[in-house]
Design brief:
alpha/beta; eight-stranded mixed beta sheet; two-stranded antiparallel sheet; 54% helix; elongated; binds adenosine-5'-triphosphate; binds magnesium ion
Length: 339
Amino acid sequence: MLSGPDPLRHLLDRRLLLFTGKGGVGKSTVVAALAAEAAASGLRPLIVELGHRATMQGIFADLGATQPIGHEPVPVTADRTIWAANLDFEAAIVDYVADQVKLRSVARTIVGNRALQGLFRAAPAVREIVMLNKLRLFERAVTRGRPTWGPILVDLDATGHALMLLEMPRVVGELLADGPLRGLVDALTGLFTDPARTLLNLVTLPAEIPVQETLELYHRLRRERGVPFGALFVNNVPASAIDGELRPYLPELAGLAAREGLPDLAADVLLAEQAIARDELVLTLVAQLQHEVDPPIALLPRLAPHEFAIPGLRRLGRAALSSLAAPPSPVQWDIQEQA
Ligand SMILES: Nc1ncnc2c1ncn2[C@@H]1O[C@H](COP(=O)(O)OP(=O)(O)OP(=O)(O)O)[C@@H](O)[C@H]1O
Ligand SMILES: [Mg+2]
C-alpha cells in the first residue's frame, strides 16, 4: 500500500505497476498518461501490453512513434523518453528458454522443435508463466549499472485475464515439486507479491455500475491474491458544469420560469439541476470508494478529444499525481489548473 506525503511519487518509484479494471474504463489511457508523467519526471517508463490488442500503437501513433510496437521495447515518442512493448507468446517462450540455456540460438532451436512446440502449447499455465517471466526479465534488465526500466507499466486488459495471470504463480507453485520451474515460479511469486517492487492498480469510472464492479473486484483481489495494491484511479471525471454559488437560487429561478411562462429559463434550470445531481453522484460514489477501499484514490479529468496528445496525457498523469496527494473533490476540479 502507498503511504507518505506524495503517494503517487511513491507509485512511480515502483518497478512494476500493474493496471486492471473493467473493459473500456480507461486502463490504457491511464497507463499512457502515467508513462508521460513518469517520462517528464526523468524516469524511464516502459509500457507493456500483453499481446491481445495493440492499443498503444493507436495512442502513440501521432505522437512520434516511428516503428511498430513489438515484443521488444521500442521508443514511442520522438524524444525517446517513453518506450513500449507488446508481448508475444512465442517470443516469450524463446526468452524463457534462452534465460535457462543462456544461448538464444540454442533456445530458438529448442522452441522451434515441433514436438516441443506441442508440449509448450499444451502444458497448463505456460502462457501465463512465460508472460510473467518476460515482465521479470524487464524488471531485472540493467543498463550501465542502473535498471533499464522504471516504472514498467503493465496494461493487463480484461479483469479475468488479470486475475488468472496474477494467481498463476501461486496456483502453479502449490502444484510444483522441486525442479527447474520451481525456482522461476518462486521468483515470480516473490516479485509479484513484493510491495517494494510491484503494485496493482485499479481503474474505474465515476458511475454506479463500474464502481460496484470495482468494489467486487477489489474485495476479491484482496481476499484471494497476494499482489499489493497501489492506487484506485477514477477516470473520466467530468468537470463541474455549474458554479456552486448558483445553487441556492435554482428553486427561485424554477418558480419564476413557471410563473412567468419562460420555457428557455425552465430548460436551463433543469440542465443545471441535472448537472448538480451528476456532481453529487460523483461525490457519493467517490466517498463510497474511499470508505470501502484502502488504496488512495486518484481522480482523472475527462479530456476533450483534441487533448489526446502528450501534453494532455501528461496533464492527466499530473492530475492523478496531485489528486492522490490531496483528498479528491471533483466538483471543484479545474483541468486548466492542473497544466
Ligand atoms: N480521461 C479521459 N477523457 C476522455 N476520454 C477518455 C479518458 N480516458 C479514456 N478515454 C477514452 O475512452 C476510451 C476507452 O479508453 P481506454 O482504451 O484507455 O480504455 P481501456 O480500459 O483500456 O479499454 P479496454 O478494456 O478496451 O482495453 C478511449 O476512446 C479513450 O480515448
Ligand atoms: Mg485497453
